[in-house]
Amino acid sequence: MRIIPIIACAVLLTGCNFKAVPDPTLSARDTAFMALVPDAEFDPHFARYLVSDPTKERPGTVVVETKERQLYLVLPDGKAVRYGVTVGDEAYGWSGTATVDRKAEWPAWNPPAEMVKRWPHVHPMQGGAANPLGARALYLSDKGRDTLYRIHGTNEPEKIGQAASSGCIRMRNIDVVDLFNRVPVGATVIVR
Question: Are strands 169-171 and 79-88 parallel, antiparallel or unpaired?
Answer without folding.
Answer: antiparallel
